[in-house]
Fold these 2 entries.
Entry 1:
Amino acid sequence: MARTKIAVLISGRGSNLQSLIDAAAEPDFPGEIALVISNRPKAGGLERASKAGISVEVVDHKSFETREDFEAAINHALKTAKVDFICLAGFMRVLTAGFASDWRGRLINIHPSLLPSFEGLHVHERMIQAGVKIAGCTVHFVSADVDSGPIIGQAAVPVLPGDNEEKLAARILEQEHKLYPACLRLLLENKARLLGANVIYDDTVVATGELINPPTN
Ligand code: GAR
């Protein structure tokens, strides 16, 4: 069976891109990363893609007057590479409602919080300031609003005494690298799918375990 052609859109270092590249290298992975697009010419993730032999495109948002023109250039690159699924991985440009609706059900994102809490920027700092005891990350379908849309999966980690932004970000990032490829696989294998405003799962997909912080025993 032909593997789904995926594009990963990045803006920075690309550690989540790397986790997707590594997952897609497994022989039974149901998708292949056909293209990596960065809106920043110097994004570290571009080198990771090239190293893995994946085509890269830089679509610099600064070269376009409008978001629509910027997205038209992205769409052109996606079409040329025959992409049928998009993963945003640290892509820090807001997409228009039109783009989100054109790619509805085929456009997903990862965000370093348990959405719908703490969308937007400076997430780790804001979580520490708010004193939350459990943090985490979310993979979700992209809808018109920033960091919103039907949730596909979440991973939780404790916030520990003495945590600063860096320590908490590192703890969450470790889970991001597990969660993103796992959610992508579920979607591509049709074990999770979008139904209206929600995501539904096969009976084989069952959660176990719990995280209580501070512990009760
Ligand atoms: C990741 O933590 C990702 O969750 C976050 O940017 C980082 C990118 O790191 N995304 C967002 O905040 C989206 N709103 P990476 O380039 O190493 O994957």
Note: The chain has a mean pLDDT of 97.
Entry 2:
Amino acid sequence: MARWKETATRCSTLPLRLFLGVTFVYAAFDKLSDSHYLAGAGDPASFVAQTEAVQDGSPIGWALGPALHSPTLFALLIAFGELAVGLGTLFGLWGRLAAAGGAAISLTLWLTVSWNVSPYYLGNDLAYLMAWTPLLLAGTPLLSVDGYLASRARRDRARGLAEDAVRRRALIDGGIAAVAIGGAGLLSGSLTATFGRDRKSVPSATPVPGPSEGAGTGAAVTVAASAVPVGGSAQVKDPASGDAVYIVQPTAGQYCGLSSVCTHSGCAVDAPKNGQLYCPCHGSRFNAATGAVVNGPATKPLPRYAVTRNGDQLELGPPQS
Ligand code: FES
């Protein structure tokens, strides 16, 4: 019994390590395979739109300028950073460094995406930040590259190798493992970003009109009626606020616009699917016909817009109170 308890104690961080490693790898591939993630500001699910949405309410909003200046670079850095952290954690390679990276990513997301979530415990990035703490303290000594390197270093010392040589050997072999694992991650991530990005495209959505097509010019914002089938949607931009709006046709001949800005904490909701709009930040769902809250934490419906049909065109009207 005592032996079992000792083993259980030694393995106590393994489930957490497995969960965090798999989750960060999954999150990275989820971003890299998402055609919206690297889209421009007009797409409410894009990195740049999500960053703009949280900038004003974040205590580190001032630091997001470079990310908005080079959004593609920063979006890729975050995705590949998550991939590196996830693989380092799963393989137990430089485990404390991987945990520090994971904690840094979670801290950044908490101070931006989750900062205005109320009550605070619904902000899942804070929970992730705390979850990295045990691995930051304990490292990844079991079933890991770190564990193998440590046991070999002990053997090297036992056979009288100088401490400098022991450390150098561990560093070089750790570096070789990092290049091998990192290279495999980089290759698979790049292939996913290059060839796998249509997986989540929304066939019914059309490109958001640019400034010359309505936003900020006083011109009407229109979209072809054929782009909005029954149950489908098309994306346009509110010329006053610049926010993306989904034009929907819940039943034949009935059109309306729904703001893409989640009323919980300002994240961009996904395009309507199966009659609902889903907010990826904290899981709120809204009725795609009315904008009403299906489930929280949001409590207010999505703002609606009038939409009128002129021949084969749909025109976005003003927001409705
Ligand atoms: Fe929290 Fe949408 S921002 S559910």
Note: The chain has a mean pLDDT of 84.
